[in-house]
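Appendix C reproduces, verbatim, an entry submitted by the partner laboratory led by Prof. M.T., so that reviewers can inspect both the input and the predicted structure.
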Amino acid sequence: MMVTDPVCNMKFEPADAVETVEHEGTTYYFCSQDCAESFREEPEDYI
């Protein structure tokens, strides 16, 4: 199953995620720490 980084829209396997963030009961997967940090700062911009 592929997941999509909500910040940059890159698709990858969950096992390849650099970081994950839990937000309102959903786990989001990120290809980089920069994408995860952008999401943490303004999650509503990416959902």
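The chain has a mean pLDDT of 97. Additional entries are available on request from the coordinating office.
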